[in-house]
Amino acid sequence: MNQPLEADTTARRAILDRLNTRTISAPPLPDVDPSQVITYDDPVQEFLDKLSLVGGEATFVDAAPQAEEVLRQIPVFREAKRVVSVFPEAVPGTMSTDGIDDPHAFATIDWMIARGEFMVAENGAIWIDGNTLPHRVLLFIAQYLAIIVSQSQIVSNMHQAYDRIENYDGRYGVFVSGPSKTADIEQSLVLGAHGCRKLQVIIVRD
């Protein structure tokens, strides 16, 4: 019987160590001319258009606590048993993350309620501050995702977005758009293949 070959970890480690000792010079990043990047007269409407294009939905409310009323109009939220919320003053959760160290414990979450820091008009993305998340996997493992964000917190493009987070010192942060989708199999679009099946954005007027 043929025995499986064991990876030569010593050789692999030696190669990686040699690569780490090499200094590779790279050209500096180009300076961005602000007058040449795209901006919008109505960035909120552009955000709504782009979000719809990628399969997300948005609803406006006058105050964050009204977000729960919006979600309760969605049948899969009304039927949800396991809801994790990092914005409990807007939407209370039914499952606490206290004392849970193993991310696998969240495998059966129905909804995740997240707090968005700001929106990006050109691609319909929202920046999530990882400091608000007890576990980063919560954004991606839940069946459905709702993000609550302020209407005034919006930028036109990713250049402005990166300027905004240039000095971000959190342990983790991510731009989220969605829902998750893939068309790898037979070029047939499937939603929710690698993450949430639905993204509901709730925009608080201010």
From TrEMBL:
SUPFAM superfamilies: NagB/RpiA/CoA transferase-like. InterPro entries: FTHF_cligase-like_sf (IPR024185), LUD_dom (IPR003741), NagB/RpiA_transferase-like (IPR037171). Residues 105-204 form the LUD domain. This is LUD domain-containing protein. It comes from Roseiconus nitratireducens.
